[in-house]
Amino acid sequence: MINTSQWAVFKRLMTYLKRYKWLTALALALLLLTTVIKSVIPLLASHFIDHYLHALNQPAMLLLLGYYGLYVLQSIIQYFGNLFFAKVSYHIVRDIRYDAFANMERLGMAYFDKTPAGSIVSRITNDTEAISDMFSGILSSFITAIFIFSVTLYTMLLLDWRVTLLIILFLPFIFILVNLYRKLSVSVIEKTRSLLSDINSKLSESIEGIKIIQAFGQEKRLQEEFEDINAEHVVYANRSMQLDSLFLRPAMSLLKLLAYAVLMAYFGFRGMQLGISAGVMYAFIQYINRLFDPLIEVTQNFSTLQTSMVSASRVFDLIDERGYEPKQEEGSHTISQGNIAFKNVSFSYDGKRQILDNISFEVKKGETIAFVGSTGSGKSSIINVFMRFYEFQAGEILIDGVDIRHYSKEELRKNIGLVLQEPFLYHGTISSNIKMYQDISEEGVRAAAEFVDASHFIDKLEKGYDQPVSERGGSFSTGQRQLLAFARTVASKPKILILDEATANIDSETEATVQASLEKMRKGRTTIAIAHRLSTIQDADCIYVLDKGRIIEQGRHEELLAQKGTYYRMYSLQAGMMNN
């Protein structure tokens, strides 16, 4: 009933089930016991009808008491069986969700460049929840159906094999219907899940960019785009529902009614000749229910199974993604000085167009260099390859004369401090955002904040360093968020400082404070800065002008102005704009 690819996904899901084999075994045992009890109940009813219906004596009352007692016992055992299956389900989903999140954390920037954030969120939340439905509901009902079907069929054969054979003739039609449903529904369900992922992506994008959307009056356009995706999702969801309604429960219920009709006709024509009692007739009617009802439930849940398999496949795609950040050797090299050298480094994102073309430069401990250039000239790409977000294709990058690949990831992250143009703050407190969950004392946090002049505004807050920080730090100004990012960097005491347009979004009034903090941070550290405002890098030891991935000019601020080249034109343009 499932194709080859789905079978592979199902087997992989079962490997997670093995982790909880004892709890699963207990749940299965309880389900089996429930099945046996369900099969015994019609036999007791049949015996009562044939032998005690005409005389309600003491044995008859004891039999009735046992009959209803079995119902109560069945309910209790079934409750615990379902409870244990639910526990197994939640543990498995927790494991799968953790594996997906853990692998996502290891992926390189290239994966996130091409994959919408909403799509990733959808896989780790919605799709894993769909897998939970399979384990908690479908798998238990499927196993229960197998138990009930097997035990019921065996009991029916013992009662009367000829009647049982008539009922069995209906089974091939059930399997034909289910297989036809599977073939028609797979593509519809895949499209439905894909559109749900698109809805999440559009929603995530709209929330993150709400300021721009409102500023440019794009609300109506976004509403229309969202509604287009939403409406298409409804179309495919309705198609899935139509297939469910046509092939699943209604068709199965019709087959059960036909089975009743065949049974009644058989008993009407042959019952008296074969000496079939009323109790046996009652038992067969009950067993037809027990034979068809689990099959109806399984087929009714088959659409959920298909959804779960598609969802599991999407989650496993994320778990199997191997576009990791560049690999580092687990060597014993340590960064002592922080001297940096790029030697003929070339880099391309797609393997076709060179973003960095034969880049070479050096910067010593305590020196500051800066990169300037137009958009797309390769400034940020230098940071990306140096931070090991991407692997460069040619040349060498050295730190203290050692190839950057020969340092452990931990050594690089510990000694390279990165300050981005858009500072990112997490939910938590000011203190936790500066610590970044590193082993830094409260005194160290305060010292870092004081060093970058962030303590001036922190001390004025109601709760000081324990002041709550909302998502992305929306309650703080851009300048305040940037100072907190500086404090976070200083607290880790890096030997190398990377500034990726750290003052680009700062207002003129705050810029003086931020610039003073930067000057203190740079002292004694090797600093690479990407600059948008040329006025912020005039004191750099060397300024490199990039164009189409190549260094076309280099020198100090005064030297570059004297050349009257690209840097001179850029500086004159900015100066003219500022004067105007």
What attributes does this structure have?
580 residues; alpha/beta; ABC transporter transmembrane region fold; Rossmann fold; six-stranded mixed beta sheet; four-stranded antiparallel beta sheet; 21 helices; 12 strands; elongated
Brief write-up:
The chain is an alpha/beta fold and 580 residues long.
Written description of the protein model:
The chain is of the alpha/beta class and 580 residues long. The protein folds into two domains: 15-320, ABC transporter type 1, transmembrane domain (ABC transporter transmembrane region fold), CATH 1.20.1560.10; 340-579, P-loop containing nucleotide triphosphate hydrolases (Rossmann fold, 3-Layer(aba) Sandwich). The protein is built from 21 helices and twelve strands. It has a six-stranded mixed sheet, with helices on both faces. The chain has a four-stranded antiparallel sheet with strand order 2-1-4-5, covered by helices on one side. Strands 7-8 form a two-stranded antiparallel sheet. Helix 2 (21-51) packs parallel to helix 5 (117-159), helix 5 runs antiparallel to helix 11 and helix 7 (171-208) packs across helix 12. The radius of gyration is 35 Å and the shape is elongated. The N and C termini lie far apart (73 Å). The model has no long low-confidence stretch (mean pLDDT 81).
